[in-house]
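Hello K.,

You asked for the raw outputs rather than the summary table, so here they are, unedited. I folded two proteins back to back in the same session to keep the settings identical. This is the first:
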Amino acid sequence: MPEQTIADRVRRLVVEAAPIAVGRVHAGMVLTDDLGYDSLSLLELMGLLEAEFDLPPVDGDFRSVRTLQDAEDMVRRVLDARRSRPRTPA
């Protein structure tokens, strides 16, 4: 999946799920301070990202997510880890 596509999809979800109206966004925006996320809305965002990208539960990975860039990086990291695992025969 191209890097830009991941960033665009993550940004779209982050903005759509933001508790406050957001105009322009940039990678350094802090989810809590700049976008109004609280612990519940962060959990909801985590669920949206898991569903959008077909991710396994990312609880541990999500603890370090503070900014929009962190969310993008986390999705890339999880997708890369999934791609690098050997496939098991069905």
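The second followed immediately with the same parameters:
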Amino acid sequence: MLFHAKLHATTLKYNVNGSSSWVPYYITEDANNSGILGELVPQILATASIEIERHDFPPQRTNQALEKGLLDFDFVSPSWFADGDMGAQFVQSEPVLHIQENIITLKDNQETWSNIAKIKGQPIGTVFGYLYHDDDIFTRVDFSSEKQLIKALHKNRVNAAISGDLPALYWAKKLNLPIALAAIHSKGVLVMRLRKEHQALMPQINAAILELKNDGTIQDLIDKYTKTELYL
């Protein structure tokens, strides 16, 4: 009983922006439509009966804050890490969402970048603060967001970039700057990355994720932000 009460009283700290403003997963400009994860994270923790404390660190400080214990969790993909290893400090939840990253480029260059091996030794557009499992084989050219990656392609600042498929399509449509999805860079799932000192909470969290999958909440949120005119 005392152990349960202690778990229930635990407050987990997280960053409201995740690792960055990652549309359509996080949307910082609209509090009522804060993105798939922006809406889902509080629901998962509420369903798990775990209190949360919201913080608003700049994107580049999120990983550092997690390592120092200033934050307790975020949502990442094991595919972003070499060999899927998030480090000894963390445990991971059951999968929450499926995601995919592509090499994005202009239509005329799509065939050139159809093989992922082409990125070796090349300057590739990336988002500042994001993790890439193989960024030792290419030269990162960091921009502030996926939105800026799209603009950079059209200004010929880079010939190729790495982006989640839905964020890239969202901003290409929003900006009226067409892009093409080329080679798949990574394909995987999003999980909660939780500091290991809180691992006793993981069964509650996993049960909450399963409940929100089974009752359609997670799919409804995905549909809300992706099944719109932006993707027709």
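The first helix runs from residue 2 to 9.

Happy to rerun anything if the numbers look odd on your end.

Regards,
P.
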